[in-house]
Amino acid sequence: MARANDEAADLIQELADLLSITGGDAFKIRAYEKAARAIAGHPDDISGLDLAGLRKIPTVGEAIAKKVLDYTTTGTIRQVEELRTQIPAGVRALTAIPTLGPKKALALYEELGVSSVDELSTAIREGRLRGLKGFGPKTEENILHGIELLRSSGERVLVDAAAGVADEIVAALSALPEVERCEHAGSLRRMRETIGDVDVLAASRDPRPVMAAFTALPLVAEVIASGEKKTSIRTAKGLQVDLRVVPPESWGAALQYFTGSQAHNIRTREIAVKAGLKLSEYGLFHAESNELIVSGTEEEVYERLGLPWIHPALREDTGEIEAALADELPRLVTVEDLRGDLHSHTDLTDGIASLEDMVAAAHARGLEYYAITDHAPNLFMQRMTDEKMLAQRRRVAELQAEYPGMTLLHGTELNIDPDGGVDWDADFLSGFDICVASVHSHFTQDRDAMTRRLVRACENPHVHVIGHPTARSIGRRSPVDADWDEVFRCAARTGTAMEVDSFPDRLDLPADLIRRAKRYGVKFSVDTDAHSVGHHRNIRYGVGTAQRGWLTPDDVVNTWPLDRLRAFLRKT
DNA sequence: GCCGTTTTCGGCCCGACTGTTTTCAGTCG
C-alpha cells in the first residue's frame, strides 16, 4: 500500500519515539525525526537506492542509511524490533494522551506495569497512581480528561470546520478596541487538509481584556490554559483553539513563528543561528547583544535571513528552504488566477441547485468559462438518460445568450467502470465540450487492476480530466490503491489533466501526489465539484491544496485563456 | 545521529504554561 519511503519514515519515527521513552539522547532522537521527514518527503523511491544513494538524502548519514537499507532488504529495522520487545506498543500509545509524554509513560510502565490506555484508565480508578512521584491529583485528573478526549473527539477536523471557527474568533477579536491586528496562523494558514487545533494571533498592547473576551466567547466550552501571552480553549465540538497575544511591533516575527510548521521554523532558526542571530516570536535579534533587528513583517524577517518570503502553504521543510536559497520558489497559483471551473453539478442529477442558479453563482465568481458536468447514466441512482442530457445541452445554449462575458461549456462526469471504460460511445462523447471521468465504485480493486483502469481512462481521447483521482473521503474512505507513477506517466503522455477537487473531505489529488504528478509534467484542473451554490466557496481549499503541491498557474489548465484550454481539450 | 566559508568535535530552535519540585521538569507547539 504505502510507498517504501513512507514505511521507512514511519519506522525511523517509531525508533525516535521508542528512544524518547527509554531515555535516549535527545539530539539523537531529533536526528531520527529529521531524517524521517526527509525520507517521507524525498521525491525518488528509496527502494532502489544503495547506501551511497541513501546518504545523498539530506540529514541521512551513515547510521540511518544503514537502517533504511535494513528496511529495504529485510522489510524491517533490527533496532526497532529490539526496542519493541522492551517497550510494548501500548506504552508508545500512551503518549497520544494529551499532557502525557514519554517520561510519564515510562514511569507508568516501570512503576505500575501499565502498558495500554485501558490499563492506565483502570490503574487510575483503583487509585494506584497515588504517591507515584511526579503524579499529583491534578496530573491524575488531566490524564483522565485526556483519555476521555482521545476516545471521543480527539481527532483532527476538516479544514472548513476549522476555518469556520477561526473566522468567527478573528471577527470577534478584531472588533475589540485593544486589538490592532488579528489573524489565524498555524496549520490552517498553511492549508493543511485536516486541522488538529486552531491558532489565532492578535497584536495588542493590553492583552488582559483580549484574553478575557476570548474566554468569554459563546463557542468556548472549556478553558485549558490561561496566561498573559497565551490562552487555550476547547470548543463544544472538541476543537482546541490557542490564542497568542503579542505587542504590535512583533507582528511579523510572531506570525512567522505561529504559522509554522515546526520543522520549517527549526530550519529558519538554524539559518539565524549560523548568521549570529536569534529568531523568536518577538523578532530577529543579534545573538550576543540581544539587539532587535527586525520583527514588523514576515517579509523583513525572511529578507534579513537571506530568503525571499515563503508562502505559508510551502512551509513544511520539504524543500522550500533549499528552493528559497536558490531563488527557485514557484509562483503559486491563486484563487484569482482561475478563469474557469470545469466540474459542477445541477439538480438534473445530485446537485441541489438549478442550472440557472449554478451558472449565476459562477458568474458572480467572475469566471470567464464554466462547465456543467452532471453525472452520466452508469451512476444509476442519478437516472440520467441521453434525452435528458441533450435537453440540458439545449438549455445551456439558450442560457449562454444571457452571459456574454462568460462561456458555458456543456460537459459530463463519466463513471470509470472496473475495466476502465466509460458510459457512452465515442460518437455521443464527442458532443460534449468537456468530459471529467471519475471512479465512483469498485474502490477496493487491487493495485494492478486499478492502475489499468485509470490508465485506460486516460487513454480515452474523449476523457479530459480524471475527477478526484484517489476517490478518498478524508476520515471515511481510504484512497484507492494504484501505481500512481504509472498513472501520472500516462496522464502526461495523453494530455489528461488530474483534478484537484476542492471538497473539504476530498481534496483530491492530495498535495503529495500533486507534487509527484507534476514531476511527470502532468497538468491539473482545480475545481469545486459544486453541488450547490454555496459549494463555490470551497475553491479556496482546492487552491490551498494545489499550493501545497507547488503548482504554478501554468500547471493548472483552468487558469489558461479559453482558446488555450480548448486546444488542450482536443488531446492532440 | 548529523554536520562543518569560524569546527572531524562540539554543538544541535526557542519559549509558554502547568504542576509539584522550594528552583525546575515535563509537555506542547
Automatic annotation (TrEMBL):
Answer yes or no on keyword Cytoplasm: no
The protein's matches in InterPro entries, at most eight in alphabetical order, are given as: DNA-dir_DNA_pol_X (IPR002054), DNA_pol_lamdba_lyase_dom_sf (IPR027421), DNA_Pol_thumb_sf (IPR037160), DNA_pol_X_beta-like (IPR002008), HHH_MUS81 (IPR010996), Hlx-hairpin-Hlx_DNA-bd_motif (IPR003583), NT_sf (IPR043519), PHP_dom (IPR004013)
Q: Where in the cell is it found?
A: Cytoplasm
The protein here is known as: DNA polymerase beta
One biological-process term from Gene Ontology? Answer: DNA repair
One Gene Ontology molecular-function label: DNA binding
The record places domain Helix-hairpin-helix DNA-binding motif class at: 52-71, 92-111, 127-146
The superkingdom listed in its UniProt entry is Bacteria
Q: Where is the Polymerase/histidinol phosphatase N-terminal domain?
A: 340-418
- Function, as annotated: Repair polymerase that plays a key role in base-excision repair. During this process, the damaged base is excised by specific DNA glycosylases, the DNA backbone is nicked at the abasic site by an apurinic/apyrimidic (AP) endonuclease, and POLB removes 5'-deoxyribose-phosphate from the preincised AP site acting as a 5'-deoxyribose-phosphate lyase (5'-dRP lyase); through its DNA polymerase activity, it adds one nucleotide to the 3' end of the arising single-nucleotide gap.
Q: Does the keyword Oxidoreductase apply?
A: no
> DNA-directed DNA polymerase X domain location, by residue?
3-316
**Under which EC number(s) is this enzyme classified?**
2.7.7.7, 4.2.99.18
Give a Gene Ontology cellular component term annotated to this protein.
cytosol
The coenzyme or cofactor needed here is:
Mg(2+)
* Keywords (A to Z) from UniProt: DNA damage, DNA repair, DNA replication, DNA synthesis, DNA-directed DNA polymerase, Exonuclease, Hydrolase, Methylation, Nuclease, Nucleotidyltransferase, Sodium, Transferase, Ubl conjugation
